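Exercise 7 asks you to align residues with tokens for two separate proteins.
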Amino acid sequence: MTQKRNMFWIKLAAFLLPALAYLAATMGIGFIGGEFTNIRKVAEMQAQGKALIYGRAYRDNYFAYKLISSQVRKPELLILGSSRTMQFRSQLADLRPGAFYNAGGAVQSIFEVLPFLHALEETGSLPKALILGLDQPWFNASAPSLNIRRRVREQMDEEKSTPLNRALNVSKLIFMDMAAGKVSPVRILDRLDPVTGQPALGIAAIMRGSGFRNDGSYQYPILKNPPPVDERLAEGYQRIKDNISHFAAGAEANGSSLREMESVLAYCKKHGIFVAGFSPPFAPGAYAAMQAGGKHAYLAKSADSLSRVFLISGFPYRDFGNAAWVEGEDEDMVDAFHGSEFVYLRIYQELLALAPAYLGPFSNAQALASAASMPRSHRLIVFEDPEPPKQR
């Protein structure tokens, strides 16, 4: 009997030890790398001014992260939109950079804007001025509708779950990336951003340098050594051909989205929030291809409708759907629908000129004009990042 009992424990140990080693390795890498760090802690660390790039690899938590960061910061000048607003930098608000925060990436539909603002209102964090990026597909009547409430709820609930529970959910993915050489334990232990040498949290930030800076703007590591323009725009042209994503065709503007836009502006007016709205840029070549195809009539129709809605509400709006309208070229794009820092500097300059009374207290127009006149070699990245910490 004793021998059988011993054999049982030996077999059990032979089964459990590899499993425990697997969990310890994968979950340990995730915890050390900051993949499961509480985002309120991340928000507070960044708000304190410590240089930190934050980027998870296995879970898009942008709504929750940007909402909590905005609640912690209580910015007077807030950027809000999809990933196509993430290149606004705090240097644009050079007179008061501490009053600026970029919540770009938080919302994926016009129907997520009010839930975001309501959550800010609950914590007394509403901004005085709001620059609102309005993605063209949000107003495409042919675009599929999103389950907004479910997406927002799932992101917030995910952050309330225990780090251990989240670690169990992604341990397999971490193991696969370690086996493929995409995750290096040595690099994870260093926890440094490979682009700037600054501290980093999250495996995407540590391994690739992809993540959010302290001001909420996004660091695209490819911009330090960008691929040729054709390579950067190739996926966008393929999406036009495939009629998908941001490049999907459409004949009419979406009436329900425009009505929601009216509700957003009414809410902001009621709460004393100045709003400057804009439609974000496509690469000039991609925009021309959509126009030439004749299948994207909704672009002009939705821009015209947004102009009327904003005019009635007394707020400014500009359509920057073609980067060429702010002196941008294909070379000035991250890809076919994300502009570089130069493009967003020029957009901000245009909005500043439209609303100097509201944006002027944050920004020195002359200094921004000087930044915009930099040589072409400085147009992908206009503003310098802080120097990495000196080695002791």
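Second protein for Exercise 7:
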Amino acid sequence: MSPDWICSQLGAREHYAIPRALHRAGRLRELHTDLWSAGLWRHARFLGAPGRDLAGRFHPELDRAAVRAHPFTAIPMVGAARLGRAADFAGNVFRQSLRLDRMTADRLRAPGIFFSYTGTFLESAARIQELGGRAILGQVDPAATEEEIVARERERHPGWEPGAVPPPPGWTERRRAEWDRADLVVVNSAWSRTCLEQQGVPPSKLRVVPLAYDPPTETARARVRARGAGVRVLWLGQVILRKGIACLLESARRLSALPVEFVIAGPIGISPAAVAAAPENVRFLGPISRTLVSRVYAGADLFVLPTLSDGFAITQLEAMAHGLPVIATPRCGEVVVPGQSGLIVPPGDAEALAAAIAGLVQNREALAAMALEALERSRHFGLDRLTGALLDLLPE
């Protein structure tokens, strides 16, 4: 069977999981993207942080795939960053997305199944449909519902995110037009599906396809870390209100009398005052490189993800693959099996989160048993499962 899917994406989203899954099945005709580090560009990691980012725009599984890079879509974005115009980051990404969409649409010549994400979809979808093909949109978040949740959280914690900016002009209208244009809208969790239905997307268009994660071989076979006297709780990801940082800090304050340490790793998006007011049992690491991620996971006993809203949080799968039980909310994908690989708590409920952590701190046998179950659970979200789910979207 000849390849018949065309993918388009900005950046290395999800480590190119969708095109990789289709390429494994021999169904990827081509991938359109902004930057692709083929050849000598793969050695750009030696040029510092920008070089590492550039070198990361590649995946060895796609080395023999037909990849169409459109680097000129990224030049204005890079230039704005160099000039210090970070405040318009969202606007730059939006404009970059539109450029990639136009360039991809101009190069479509035959029918097929087109897949792309929010922002890089609309014109290419219209073109593929003109040619007699189908268009599938990957909606990566719960859209306006999530934006409203974040707005309310910022009102409850004024000054925590002083640099927050609204979506760029035209973004909301573009998103709606993409929903209308798509033959199918793929979301990665039941939470996102519910949110999009509330926003008027027809249920008949919506499909849930969870993200995939293939852990490195050495990680998947890692043994559960020996437990010491104290328990180290890890947060890894953006330190922002949407992810539930205010809830976590309040929970940490409630647990100051227990032998538990909270390690928060990731870019800090809250104010210095909010960081300074954190309880003494909390330690902020700031951003960490991908090369250090495994070490950070290996040094923890428990992973927390008290998110207020996520389409799907891949970090919970990473944590489980390193033998960490996960405490999460119902708004980040159906990964945790409550009572087996972790626990589920209501979003924004600091008392419930503190109680869940305390219960595992005081019951090391349960913590160890969940660690083993978490390791096993992480293996249920491999790339082969994603391949099957994609091909089932439009059966022959």
